């Protein structure tokens, strides 16, 4: 287990280097003036442009630029926004809300995705399975922002059951609908994945052997079918953290939540390239660390991995 | 004593001593021959029609109502995308502010949006953007991801190691975030290609992973060894055996992800970094209509419904194809 | 009482009890249907058989005969759409057909156990072995401190010399009490002074497994070592006080023949070899001491020697526990060797049943006759007994072996010299020698068989001869030329003359290729003929392997294993090769189909003077096809001689073990 951990951490290093390099290269090494591009369709502010140039060491060779960027990133020094605030403090203010939102969405998609997936998988072909399957297909097909608008309109505007927008310091109730919207697509995917896994596992030989040992249907279902079916689901959940962070941008915008996603969206609107790169870099780092944690969880759940 | 032991040993092999009489119900029984006529050893049923895997899959698909419905929808959407003028006489970009938010009626079944554009015409013309981006991205992703995956799986060794690490790097960047970084550089461009290339750049990874494992699996099957022993070269094996045998999961993946690329394009346009509002697209229209949610939800509804139905059609088709090509997932 | 009469009186006592109590399992007119696409397929039709307490009954048949389906119907575990639609299944006189799920759960494990076929897929990979044994104990509320013996076992035990004392004679030793017991046992044996102390202690150490050895067993062992009766019982009572769950799990595993059971119980299935997994499955099947054990081809996936060991062990275990066994197998020889009663199934019906030796010696139904004729184990047995009687064996053999002189005169078509192949093991420094300095030669027009268990390196040799794998050292000569020096043109020529037929009939044909394309492929690769002549050639080849030309348009998934293997042979024959290398080419096939393919190979050799290198783990098959035999073990060549020599005068212990392991070896066939 220790060796496995070490190997995974070591494998993470080139991924971190590669991803940051890639993002950096996308922003600063493409043809054209990256600083001008950061201003988008707005006129170039020469003073700010000069500030960006020196902050990002754009006068130096590319790899030096990158290494300096990396050094700054590691020390959480991401420079300043157009408005003159340190980027890190802007992000720091926005993060708690987003983390709360993402966590709620994560719990929602995990709990309900697995629950409905189990019901669907165990009652394959019956009406409950068919209904769940149709709903999950619909959720996957309808883009998040459309689902968001529909729920916002129905629950927020029409029926006034839940707040339509979140506001400055949102609580649990304010974030409930955004979290459901954020988690809905992944929930549908988890339903489908769990269902497939369960129906595959149902016909495994070891399930039959467990029944032959005299285990009750409940014991067989919990200990053999569910235990084995959930391993790929856990992996999916881990990989989905990245999706949640991207999706947060849409939900935060629809429900006007002052989180990282919204900050990122505003930065895009204002054409504030440095802020965009910084936020994306941080999100990618979080994603990489989460993937590592999920990998470790995977190894705990599946003994075969540990020795592979 | 020694004598008796030996004696008993030799008698061990003599059945009659050990099992004197059959127990009740275990007497000798022989079925009459006409009850179970004896067939040739390993005879071939010459009656059954011959079917290849593809023919088999096609037969399954034809009988699947989900496939038929989704295929009709897909064909319809593609027709709309190819010949929008067949479906509406209106011009989606000739708008008149006088008509702003006017309700439906006459030749304008869906009414007008805030700019006074005909919503029905915009929905019809928006299909082209969505469908072409979906199809183009799928083709490019399949080519790029398929190539990288096939090379990694087929060559193995250090080539595989390097390509797999590169794949890991791209995998670590969520598609939406990567697309935002890249697209904010090209905000003013109206070409759909910027979306296609961006989605390809951050979307090929999954295809590469699936192709790699499919190729790896096909490569280790015995028929490759058999072909090599017949004198076939590795390249011939790759093209004649390995690639045809790893196509199924790639096709399934391509069909299913086509819908998701359409969603991604709409999302990017919705976030304002996709196509500018001068290009008619469902995502863009949804984005501009969102402020009308409380007052005129129908303007928001039509492009959303068109988008959802299109994506649903592609995903359902992908599902059906998957069921047909992968016998394991078939419902018994 | 002499041993012989004692054994006999026990047997007759057993028979008396069996008749008095009636059958344990009684299956009458069983019908099982599967539904597919709306219409039903009859998998089992009107099958009747019964099993008495403590008896081994074998169901024999080819794949698809309904033998496994019948067994699963008894367990109430029919897969998919399978359903019992008629007949009755009675266990202890209780009807099982139509039982509720709950009632069936109560019966499974406690009254019926299962040892399944494939050890690789029947253990859940995510749970420790011990946990999976524990499940069986917990689910059936087993008392882990004492043995649960059937009435039959008690009856059998009571006829031994030790008198039972008290009711709690069935308690197990706990691991915590073992050291104290050992010390006192040593003192007692020393004091008694009747046996060699160290030897006795050694014996105790091997016998007294915590969670498996009972108080009664300890007392018996002490008495046997010369300790006075009362003292022995006093010691046993003092220390043997019942075991806990972990002891019992380890005890069950060591009973099933798994050494180091305590450590093994903490391991996961992927750390076990196939044989070890099968032992763990046996421990699970017997954990709750069922009256009936259903063993569904329990050893088909294992090497013959392992198979023999495991079955010997299982038989010993079920005999001592009084467990009845319903033994499902495709091997008639194995069935006759292990079971008293045989049920032969064909196409879902019982075609013949009766006492095993009687069925074997006088098969009545044409299908049974076919089986008896085709079974390789029985065939080689026939040859042996014919030789013992000094009869001419030539008529019995499909393949007429060439004599030693003939072999010496013929030229070598393939020769391997000091062939060695090393592999790097993952995360280990030293290299693993899969093949270690192997030399032999195949003579033109003859068959050389390489025999060995899995991991003996025999397939690695085949791959090196085929030039699919580079040797680490040594060389392969074809027609006297070193193949390692071949350029691409010479290599293509070599490929044309040396063709393989592989083991897995499902893997060696490309599922995307029609039969025509598959057979045509070698012609195309070597650029032989045009489309029309190739089509004629394919037709000719199909005829050669006795297949109708109508299969040309079909795909491999529509053919059976044997049919695919015949297609593979046709493909190998397409280029008119000199040598065919068969790597376990018939191992995956049913006996009748195997026999058919072997006949085909023999005929082709006789007609065309082909030379075969025949790789197999099954010595019984060797007798039917080979002129010379090479026996391999751990990558080394341990014996090399003519087939008759190897069978009649095996030089090495390993070869003798392999010969012993051929099922049915101890049967007397009565060739009259």
What would you say this structure looks like, in words?
The complex is a heterotrimer of chains A (308), B (332) and C (672). Chain A is mainly alpha-helical and 308 residues long. Chain A folds into 2 domains: 1-75 and 271-307, no CATH class; 93-270, Orthogonal Bundle (MetI-like fold). Chain A has helices at 2-28, 34-38, 46-55, 62-74, 87-122, 127-141, 144-158, 172-202, 205-212, 217-254, 260-270, 273-301, 303-307. The longest helix of chain A has 38 residues, at 217-254. In chain B, 65% of the residues lie in helices and 1% in strands. Chain B has 332 residues and is mostly helical. Chain B is built from 12 helices and 1 strand; from the N terminus they run H-H-E-H-H-H-H-H-H-H-H-H-H. Residues 1-19 and 328-332 of chain B have low confidence and may be disordered. Chain B has one domain: MetI-like (MetI-like fold, Orthogonal Bundle), CATH 1.10.3720.10. Chain C is of the alpha/beta class. Chain C folds into 3 domains: 21-121 and 291-374, P-loop containing nucleotide triphosphate hydrolases (Rossmann fold, 3-Layer(aba) Sandwich), CATH 3.40.50.300; 151-243, no CATH class; 393-508 and 579-661, P-loop containing nucleotide triphosphate hydrolases (Rossmann fold, 3-Layer(aba) Sandwich), CATH 3.40.50.300. Helix content of chain C is 42%, strand content 20%. In chain C, helix 10 (245-255) packs across helix 12 (274-286) and helix 21 packs parallel to helix 23 (561-573). Chain C is globular. Residues 161-166 of chain C have low confidence and may be disordered. The chains are: A mainly alpha (308), B mainly alpha (332), C alpha/beta (672). Chains B and C meet through helix 1, helix 2, strand 1, helix 9 and helix 10 of B and helix 1, strand 10, helix 15, helix 16 and helix 20 of C.
């Amino acid at each position: 287990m220790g060796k496995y951990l070490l190997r995974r951490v070591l494998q993470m290093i080139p991924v971190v280097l590669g991803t940051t390099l890639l993002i950096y290269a996308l922003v600063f090494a493409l043809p054209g003036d990256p600083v001008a591009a950061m201003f988008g369709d707005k006129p170039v502010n020469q003073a700010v442009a000069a500030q960006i140039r020196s902050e990002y060491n754009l006068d130096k060779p590319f790899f030096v630029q990158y290494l300096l960027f990396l050094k700054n990133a590691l020390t959480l020094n991401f420079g300043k926004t157009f408005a003159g605030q340190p980027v890190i403090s802007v992000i720091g203010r926005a993060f708690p809300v987003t983390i709360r939102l993402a966590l709620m969405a994560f719990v929602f998609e995990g709990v309900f995705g697995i629950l409905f997936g189990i019901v669907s998988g165990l009652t394959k072909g019956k009406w409950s399975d068919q209904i769940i399957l149709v709903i999950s297909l619909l959720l996957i097909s309808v883009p998040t922002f459309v689902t968001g608008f529909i729920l916002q309109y129905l629950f927020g505007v029409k029926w006034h059951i839940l707040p339509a927008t979140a506001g400055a310091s949102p609580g649990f109730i304010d974030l409930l609908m955004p979290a459901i919207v954020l988690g809905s697509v992944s929930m549908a995917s988890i339903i489908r994945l769990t269902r497939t896994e369960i129906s595959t596992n149902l016909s495994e030989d070891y399930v039959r052997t467990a029944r032959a040992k005299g285990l009750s249907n409940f014991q067989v279902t919990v200990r053999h079918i569910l235990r084995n079916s959930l391993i790929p689901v856990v992996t999916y959940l881990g990989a989905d953290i990245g999706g949640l962070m991207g999706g947060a941008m849409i939900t935060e915008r629809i429900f006007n939540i002052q989180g990282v996603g919204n900050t990122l969206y505003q930065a895009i609107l204002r054409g504030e390239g440095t802020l965009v790169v910084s936020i994306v870099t941080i999100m990618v780092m979080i994603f990489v660390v989460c993937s590592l944690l999920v990998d470790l969880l995977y190894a705990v759940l599946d003994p075969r991995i540990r020795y592979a | 004593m020694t004598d008796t032991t030996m004696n008993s040993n030799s008698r061990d092999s003599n059945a009659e001593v050990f099992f004197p009489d059959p127990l009740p119900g275990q007497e000798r029984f022989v079925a009459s021959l006409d009850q179970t006529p004896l067939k040739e050893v390993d005879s071939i049923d010459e009656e059954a029609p011959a079917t290849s895997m593809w023919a088999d899959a096609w037969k399954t698909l034809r009988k699947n109502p989900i496939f038929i419905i989704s295929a009709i929808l897909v064909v319809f959407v593609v027709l709309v995308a190819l010949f929008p003028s067949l479906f509406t006489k209106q011009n989606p970009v000739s708008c008149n502010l006088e008509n702003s938010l006017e309700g439906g009626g006459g030749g304008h079944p869906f009414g007008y949006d805030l700019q006074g554009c005909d919503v029905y015409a915009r929905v019809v013309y928006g299909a082209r953007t969505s469908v072409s981006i979906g199809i183009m991205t799928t083709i490019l992703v399949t080519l790029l991801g398929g190539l990288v995956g096939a090379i990694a799986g087929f060559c193995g060794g250090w080539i595989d190691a390097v390509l797999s690490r590169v794949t890991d790097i791209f995998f670590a960047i969520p598609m939406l975030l990567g697309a935002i970084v890249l697209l904010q550089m090209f905000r003013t461009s109206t070409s759909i290609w910027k979306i296609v290339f961006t989605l390809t750049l951050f979307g090929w990874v999954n295809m590469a992973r699936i192709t790699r494992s499919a190729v790896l699996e096909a490569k280790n099957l015995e028929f490759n060894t058999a072909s090599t022993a017949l004198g076939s070269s590795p390249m011939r094996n790759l093209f004649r055996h390995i690639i045809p045998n790893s196509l199924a999961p790639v096709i399934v993946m391509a069909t299913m992800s086509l819908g998701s690329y359409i969603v991604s394009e709409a999302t990017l346009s919705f976030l304002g970094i996709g196509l500018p509002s001068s290009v008619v697209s469902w995502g863009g229209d949804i984005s501009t209509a969102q402020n009308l949610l409380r007052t005129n939800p129908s303007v928001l509804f039509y492009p959303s419904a068109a988008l959802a139905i299109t994506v649903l059609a592609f995903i359902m088709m992908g599902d059906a194809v998957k069921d047909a090509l992968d016998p394991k997932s078939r419902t018994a | 009482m002499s041993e012989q009469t004692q054994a006999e009186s026990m047997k007759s006592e057993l028979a008396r009890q069996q008749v008095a109590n009636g059958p344990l399992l009684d299956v009458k007119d069983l019908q099982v249907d599967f539904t597919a696409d709306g219409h039903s397929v009859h998998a089992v039709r009107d099958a009747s058989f019964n099993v008495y307490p403590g008896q081994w009954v074998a169901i024999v048949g080819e794949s698809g005969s309904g033998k496994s389906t019948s067994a699963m119907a008894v367990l109430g575990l029919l897969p998919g759409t399978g359903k019992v639609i008629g007949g009755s299944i009675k266990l202890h006189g209780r009807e099982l057909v139509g039982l509720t799920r709950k009632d069936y759960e109560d019966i499974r494990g406690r009254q019926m156990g299962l040892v399944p076929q494939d050890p690789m897929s029947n253990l859940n990979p995510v749970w420790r072995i011990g946990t999976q044994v524990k499940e069986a104990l917990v689910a059936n509320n087993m008392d882990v401190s004492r043995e649960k013996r059937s009435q039959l076992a008690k009856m059998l035990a009571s006829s031994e010399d030790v008198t039972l004392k008290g009711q709690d004679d069935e308690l197990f030793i706990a691991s915590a009490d073992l050291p104290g017991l050992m010390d006192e046992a040593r003192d007692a044996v020393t004091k008694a002074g009747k046996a060699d102390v160290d030897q006795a202690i050694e014996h105790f150490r091997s016998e007294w497994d915590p969670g498996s050895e009972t108080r009664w067993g300890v007392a018996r062992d002490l008495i046997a070592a010369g300790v006075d009766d009362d003292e022995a019982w006093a010691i046993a009572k003092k220390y043997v006080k019942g075991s806990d769950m972990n002891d019992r799990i380890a005890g069950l595993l060591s009973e099933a023949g798994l050494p180091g059971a305590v450590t093994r119980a903490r391991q996961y299935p992927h750390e076990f070899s196939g044989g070890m997994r099968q032992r763990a499955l046996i421990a699970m099947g017997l954990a709750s001491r069922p009256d009936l054990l259903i063993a569904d081809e329990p050893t088909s996936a294992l090497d013959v020697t392992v198979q023999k060991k495991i079955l010997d062990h299982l038989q010993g275990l079920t005999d001592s526990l009084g467990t009845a066994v319903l033994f499902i197998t495709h091997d008639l020889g194995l069935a006759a060797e292990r079971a008293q009663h045989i049920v032969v199934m064909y196409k879902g019906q019982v075609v013949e049943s009766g006492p095993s030796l009687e069925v074997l010696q006088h098969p009545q139904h044409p299908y049974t006759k076919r089986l008896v004729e085709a079974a390789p184990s029985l065939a080689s047995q026939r040859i042996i007994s014919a030789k013992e009687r000094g009869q001419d064996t030539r008529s019995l053999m499909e393949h007429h072996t060439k004599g030693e002189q003939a072999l010496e005169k013929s030229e070598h078509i393939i020769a391997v010299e000091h062939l060695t192949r090393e592999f790097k093991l993952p995360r280990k420094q030293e290299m693993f020698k899969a093949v270690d300095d192997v030399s032999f030669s195949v003579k033109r027009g003859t068959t050389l068989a390489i025999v060995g268990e899995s991991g003996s390196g025999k397939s690695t040799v085949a791959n090196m001869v085929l030039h699919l794998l580079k040797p680490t050292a040594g060389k392969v000569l074809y027609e006297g030329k070193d193949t390692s020096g071949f350029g691409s043109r010479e290599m293509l020529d070599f490929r044309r003359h040396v063709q393989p037929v592989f083991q897995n009939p499902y893997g060696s044909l490309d599922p995307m290729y029609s039969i025509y394309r598959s057979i045509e492929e070698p012609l195309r690769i070597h650029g032989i003929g045009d489309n029309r002549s190739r089509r004629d050639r394919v037709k000719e080849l199909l005829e050669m392997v006795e297949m109708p030309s109508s299969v040309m348009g079909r795909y491999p998934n529509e053919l059976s294993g044997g049919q695919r293997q015949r297609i593979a042979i046709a493909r190998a024959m397409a280029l008119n090769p000199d040598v065919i290398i068969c790597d376990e080419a018939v191992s995956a096939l049913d006996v009748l189909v195997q026999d058919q393919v072997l006949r085909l190979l023999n005929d082709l050799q006789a007609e065309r003077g082909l030379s075969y290198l025949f790789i197999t783990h099954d010595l019984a098959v060797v007798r039917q096809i080979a002129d010379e035999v090479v026996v391999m073990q751990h990558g080394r060549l341990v014996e090399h001689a003519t087939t008759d020599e190897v069978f009649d005068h095996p030089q090495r212990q390993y070869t003798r073990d392999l010969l012993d392991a051929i099922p049915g070896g101890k049967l007397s066939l009565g060739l009259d």
